[in-house]
Design goal:
Length: 451
């Protein structure tokens, strides 16, 4: 087992990793930017090293600074968390070169799943269902329009190096194809320095359902059931739950088997997620693989009583997994609490927190790095907390979440708490009647309480 792990991340995930390391008897090193000097990970880690100014490119994306921190602290492993360098094959390669263990998959596995086209080809060869679309990158508008007619509108243009909805555009007919093509390429180039675009059939009214997986260094893989992440805004998840209210035992078995095939196709090592689109007829299609821990891993932890960060660390240290497939025994829902203003199109709301009271009680979990007196910097992702509620049934979990949200007090900034309060009381959500386009049809602003 490792003696000391450096956490190349910030915020709640850094604190989450520190907690598990302490329970495992492993020393921790927090790296931080100048903007995060007063953050809780810095306070609770055994050591802390400043790696640069506030801008991510000068700190949390600065590989040289992070590896220098590894050297001066004599760390023997790096946990990248999620985001930043967690799916960067070059960084994983440098860790290997400098003989520090990257807690995650190999550089080769990251590359194989990081490019959406190569990932799709790999999945098709493995027999995993994929959305109909191009077999490679589109070369020009004319080729795209010709293939769109063959596939059938609507289609969706996607950046091959993409994620988070960047470089993604839905096209409904020939007339708008060229404009959407140009927009998708510009976005992709700006976000990923790669304007490669491919095309797929656009699945209408889809659910976004993902399967949590784990694989070890001995070729064994298992799944840890599903999460439904269909409540989204601009392709950004807002609420996740397990099990999915749309799931059937037969569909769970099929999707779980497909996810294991996906892992075995690349001999996957580590914890990861296979993301699927599921249409209204319960046909499912591979979308992408996240070769890292997910924000919403906490939902899975709550329904199967399993520490996924601990499993990551054990796999990286060479321990075998059990090989057992896990199924939810409870129901859990997670609301992402963001420093955003739901009254004003979710505009970011960084600033000073004057008062902070998190909910408590049986089956209530809050993962956060903020506290009363903390100032949220404007330089990073706006998520400041995750509220997870667990109960025996979905109805009980929703009621518990309602109560917990009513207890959540954050003063000094705007947050998404009011949005989540209205969502938990929405009848369609309660009935499980939603898909990824739910926020496009629900006029939530009219139901928000008066400020």
């Amino acid at each position: 087992m490792f003696n000391k792990i450096l956490i190349a991340n910030r915020g709640e995930i850094a604190l989450r990793i520190i907690r598990t390391c302490k329970e495992m008897g492993i020393k921790t090193v927090a790296v931080y930017s100048e903007a995060d000097r007063d953050s809780l990970p810095v306070k609770f880690a055994d050591e802390a090293v400043c790696i640069g100014p506030a801008a991510s490119v000068d700190s949390y994306l600065n590989m040289k600074s992070i590896l220098s921190a590894v050297e001066i602290t004599n760390s023997d492993a790096i946990h990248p968390g999620y985001g930043f360098l967690s799916e960067n094959a070059e960084f994983a390669e440098l860790c290997r070169l400098y003989d520090v263990k990257f807690i995650g998959p190999t550089p080769e596995q990251i590359r194989s799943m990081g490019d959406k086209i190569s990932a799709k080809v790999t999945m098709l060869k493995a027999g995993v269902p994929c959305v109909p679309g191009t077999e490679g990158l589109l070369t020009d508008v004319k080729e795209g329009m010709k293939l769109a007619k063959e596939i059938g509108y609507p289609v969706i243009l996607k950046a091959t190096a993409g994620g988070g909805g960047k470089g993604m555009r839905i096209v409904w007919n020939d007339d708008e194809f060229e404009n959407q093509w140009d927009t998708a390429r510009r976005e992709a180039k700006a976000a990923f320095t790669n304007d490669g675009i491919y095309m797929e059939k656009y699945i209408e009214e889809p659910r976004h359902i993902e399967i949590q997986v784990a694989g070890d260094q001995f070729g064994k893989a298992c799944h840890l059931s599903e999460r439904d992440c269909s409540i989204q805004r601009r392709h950004q998840k807002l609420v996740e739950e397990s099990p999915s209210p749309f799931m059937t035992p037969e569909l769970r078995e099929k999707m779980g088997a497909a996810a294991i095939k996906a892992c075995q196709a690349i001999n996957y090592e580590g914890v990861g997620t296979i993301e699927f689109l599921v249409d209204k007829y319960r046909n499912f299609y591979f979308m992408e693989m996240n070769t890292r821990i997910q924000v919403e891993h906490t939902v899975t932890e709550e329904v199967i009583d399993f520490d996924l960060i601990k499993e990551q660390i054990k796999i990286a240290a060479g321990h075998p997994i059990s090989g057992k497939n896990y199924f939810p025994e409870m129901h859990a829902i997670e609301c992402r609490i963001n420093a955003e203003d739901p009254y004003n199109d979710f505009r970011p709301s960084p600033g000073h927190i004057y008062h902070f009271h998190s909910p408590k009680g049986h089956g209530v979990r809050v993962d956060t790095h903020v506290y009363a007196g903390y100032t949220i910097p404007p330089f990073y992702d706006s998520m400041i907390a995750k509220l997870i509620c667990r109960a025996r049934t979905r109805d009980e979990a929703i009621k518990k979440m309602e109560r917990a949200l009513d207890e959540f007090v954050i003063e000094g900034i705007k947050t998404t708490v009011p949005f989540h309060q209205r969502l938990m009381r929405n009848q369609d959500f309660k009935d499980g009647n939603f898909n990824t386009g739910f926020l496009n049809t629900w006029n939530y602003k009219d139901e928000l309480p008066k400020e």
